[in-house]
Amino acid sequence: MGHTVLAFHAHPDDESLLTGGTLAKAAAEGHRVVLVTATDGALGLARAPYAADLAAARERELRCAAYELGVHRVEMLGYADSGMGAQLLPDPPGKVRFVRASVDEAAQRLAELLREEQADVLLSYDVNGGYGHRDHARVHEVGARAAELAGTPRVLEALVSPRVARVMKPRGLELAPVPAPTHVVDVRPYVAAKVRAIRCHRSQLESGSWLPRNNDLLTRLPLRVLERAIGWERFADPAAPRGIPNEVRGDIFAGL
């Protein structure tokens, strides 16, 4: 019997970097995969020609990546990217930055999709949003509230390694402790699809100089190296009891 997973992400390319293997695995095994992205990603770093209309470019890239991962449905909530700078920029014309949006309003919109799809699993982010990006932290808040409203059976929060979190977090921000993984998904058979999806996001790969960007370098490593480096994706179930050992599962749908 197939299940439905809805992955909620902050920006185009987060879906591939954080959960790409898990989504590809679910699709390959006959489950329905739905991708919802909160923002347009318009504050991502980009050079010409992408910078002229970065939001439109990133939506095209998102749909390319979704195809590579086998995603069945893509929705964008249409909020403006809040960025990582020390100062939050004013809202652009006709849009509101995600962190300025009402949590309840955004959660209601996400809950409608969860109910419509009868989603069994919501993939979201931990309390830090992984590394402290303001939009990622808001995904955690909105996702938790939406799952509550929709009665979604399982929420799994994507985790990043502590080392990555320390390197990428905004300066001066203290990250909250996060739980140990309850689900570790072996995605090594799907690393090639994950890499193709990451490479769909060309605007976030091309540096315009002789020095390549990190994700560009990552995706050019040999497949055997990539399988060791990004061959597992980790999630925590916020409903799991704290303070006692939990069984670590490799299937996000196990027990449903």
Describe the protein's architecture and organization:
The protein is built from 8 helices and 7 strands, in the order βαβαβαβαβαβαααβ. It has a 7-stranded mixed beta sheet with strand order 3-2-1-4-5-7-6, with helices on both faces. Helix 1 (14-28) runs parallel beside helix 2, helix 2 (54-69) packs antiparallel against helix 6 (191-200) and helix 3 packs across helix 4 (134-150). The chain is an alpha/beta fold and 256 residues long. The chain has one domain (4-236): 3-Layer(aba) Sandwich (Rossmann fold), CATH 3.40.50. The protein is globular, with a radius of gyration of 17 Å. Helix content is 37%, strand content 16%.
CATH class: Alpha Beta
Main beta-sheet annotation: 7 strands, mixed
Could you tell me the CATH topology label. Answer: Rossmann fold
What is the string of helix and strand elements? EHEHEHEHEHEHHHE
The CATH level-2 architecture is identified as: 3-Layer(aba) Sandwich
Give the SSE map.
Layout: E1 4-9, H1 14-28, E2 32-39, H2 54-69, E3 73-79, H3 103-117, E4 121-125, H4 134-150, E5 154-158, H5 162-168, E6 183-186, H6 191-200, H7 214-219, H8 223-230, E7 232-236
Helix pairs in contact: 1-2, 1-6, 2-6, 3-4
Gist of the model:
With 256 residues, the protein is an alpha/beta fold. It has eight helices and seven strands; from the N terminus they run βαβαβαβαβαβαααβ.
Give the tags:
256 residues, alpha/beta, Rossmann fold, 7-stranded mixed beta sheet, 7 strands, 37% helix, 16% strand, globular
